[in-house]
Amino acid sequence: GKEKWPRGEEKVWKECMRDVDTEVSSITKSFVNHVQTSLARQPYNLDNLGAYQAAALSVRDNLLVNWNETALQYTRKAPKRAYYLSLEFLMGRTLDNALLNLGLKDQYSQGVKKLGFSMEDILDQERDAALGNGGLGRLAACYLDSSASQELPVWGYGLRYKYGIFQQLISPAGEQLEAPDPWLDNQNPWELPRLDVAYEVRFYGHADRLNDGTPRAVWAGGQEVLAVAYDVMIPGCYTKTTNNLRLWESKPKRGFDLNSFNAGNYEGAVESSNSAAAITSVLYPNDHTSFGKELRLKQQYFWTAASLADILRRFKNIGKPITEFPDYVAIQLNDTHPTLAIPELMRILIDEEDQPWATAWQIVTNTFFYTNHTVLPEALEKWPVPLLEHLLPRHLQIIYDINLLFLQSVEKKFPGDRDRLARMSLIEEGFPKQVRMAYLACIGSRKVNGVAELHSDLVKTTILKDFVEFEGISKFGNVTNGITPRRWLDQCNPELSALISTTLKVDKAVWLKELTRLEELLPKTEDEAFRKEWAAIKQRNKERLAHHVQTTLGLTINTKAMFDVQIKRLHEYKRQTLNILGVIHRYLTLKNMTAEEKKKVNPRVVFFAGKAAPAYYIAKLVSAPSLPLPLPLYFIAWLTPFGTHQTIRLIVNVARIINEDPDTKDLLSLYFLPDYSVSLAEVLIPASDISQHISTAGTEASGTSNMKFCLNGGLLLGTVDGANIEIAEEVGESNVFFFGHLTPAVEDLRYQHTYHPIPIEEKCPALANVLNQVSAGLFGDADVYEPLLNTIRQGDHYLLSDDFDSYIAALAMVDEAYLDQTEWVKKSIRTTAKMGKFSSDRAINEYAESYWNIEAQRIA
Ligand code: 73E
């Protein structure tokens, strides 16, 4: 039917439009005002997207006031500030978060209702800002929220990618297809273009040492591009403090080469403008792999150079001598991606500020802090020396100089230890030689940390062992990751948040910033009415998820079943394959059961979501039309989706069979939800009964979704890895389901796989049977899966065959525990109650106190 216009109450619309002084709230007025002015739209036929934009602009006005006051106060008081350099900020949506942090959600909801809109529909119009791959990028976003909420003077610096993480489509055959994510297409009301804040960044050219008794050199020639700032406001929770996230966009310094144009070379004239814009065009979608691509290195330098120039300019405004730089500035390096900031600051101090080498190095090593996020060898960044020499000739000189002095000091402490020098050199020998970025980040920083206890120990005993021996243990620490309870409880699970406030008899403004107060829920485990309410909320969250899947995918989900969830990037080490093979095992077991036996089985719905890294994505996006045909063989191999792509395909095809099997479908069903995102996580996490974090021990540095599930009362099934260990320490081992070999066993097991392999039929008959059923074509496409199955039969680097039996046993324990619903709900309450430690407020305060030495600033 035709919609009636205007929506909502006509009187309210009219009064807002005439701006007469009535009882209509200022919120409604500002909303209508933006419809008429900023959007230049007819108020009477506004759609949901327009309403979202008007609401966003109106909220933005509120934020702007606070943001300006915060900036002004930081400038006036000039406290020491910290800067978080991250190539990824996985922010998700902003409107709901801003409304909650401002404490204006109820008022806005009522306001838009009067105008005929539902807040839920409006919020749903917003596109995710998905400028990140996974945990590392989402951690950066949580840390910004916590910094502002804790009133700490912290700014983020990143890149304004035109395209975020690709959109994932799943073909009917189960193949992952990637589409670009043009997230800025509808305009982004949350960013403020700062065309006045721009820096020139140089690439290529030549570097000539002055050889005048100083370490100076002149770097000239090459290409210069412009970095333009876009600011994103970061509101704290119930505070005026509104910090800044500054994202750089690349632009050609001159849009157009007039000489070439006049010479009739139109293509040549726009070429430089194309290559400059390419730098910030797309986020690299491969996490845990270092690709060595020139464009990625350009991104890293472009971003670090612009950020440092900006930080230095701000420091100079204070008017202090450059030697006091570290008293005013701390820079956190989020993994090794911004490591070029170290030679870049050396370059500025030496070549532009004319400082002696030792002074410059002193400043640098008191300014930077380095967080390592992974010990997987394939993720450790190394850049080929020839590439660096070509793109950043001066920086390569500086890196060689740093290395020379460093190795001299190592030689002094360990005379004659040639092996040690080779191991510790910043330059790895080989063809080509490569720069080891983790080593450079380590020696150029004041402190180094890992992201969970186990991981930090592994950093100290494996990849940076020699550096601990040389520099002393006190330089190396741990800051266990955290998550913001604003987004990951209050926003995604409003009913649970409300129940907690009522139960604790304290406003959420208090406990959301003092999360250990959740412990006060503990006595409530013995309160039956409370348990009922707790369980009812979980049930409604499951129904909300089911409704979402129904409306987006047209699938009907059994909400009476246990919801079992594994959502994260697809990666061999995270072992989604173990999970799907476990599902197949369950299916085969059910198929062999009598009707009587089946009656004792609790129904289970298994959810997967996650993106696999497309190795050829960038190539496809940038140069798809010009691929040479026919393709050489090695190229086809490279394009063939492998490993994780086959796992997705297996999941989809297993789902197709078992969801239709009348023998089992009431007891087991399986869904792969496409295009996993922050917003989808916000629906999935509160609905989970059990979630899986099943990496091979020692491979998942921390994990952060484990914390999100537990905070929402979902129980954890996992390996003894990363932050799972600390979660268990907090909630008690009886409230988590652990399985699998421990970290110290992994090396030996891998050795056995290589040198004393045992046939899988012997070693793990249950797993062998599952693999054979897949090979036999039970789920179709048998030959497609053979390479994947063979990685388990031979080599088995991630030890699926070693952990399978204990995994199946752990799943059975989950089933058993779920049968006793009273006890299960108690576990659920206890889990939430003990999650206080994992607030990102705790983590950010550790950085502020023990690393950066910065203090909270009250914005009056
Ligand atoms: O365990 C997670 C950790 O919780 C780890 O795998 C992830 O970082 C999270 C936050 O600390 C991570 N991402 C990357 N390395 N570790 C990475 C590597 C290269 C490119 C992009 C991301």
UniProtKB/TrEMBL annotation:
Catalytic activity reported: [(1->4)-alpha-D-glucosyl](n) + phosphate = [(1->4)-alpha-D-glucosyl](n-1) + alpha-D-glucose 1-phosphate
N6-(pyridoxal phosphate)lysine PTM sites in chain numbering: 708
Coiled-coil portions: none
Presence of keyword Transferase: yes
Enzyme class per UniProt: transferase
Keywords assigned: Carbohydrate metabolism, Glycosyltransferase, Pyridoxal phosphate, Transferase
Gene3D superfamilies: Glycogen Phosphorylase B
Free-text function comment from the UniProt entry: Allosteric enzyme that catalyzes the rate-limiting step in glycogen catabolism, the phosphorolytic cleavage of glycogen to produce glucose-1-phosphate, and plays a central role in maintaining cellular and organismal glucose homeostasis.
Protein name per its UniProtKB record: Alpha-1,4 glucan phosphorylase
Lineage: Eukaryota, Fungi, Dikarya, Basidiomycota, Agaricomycotina
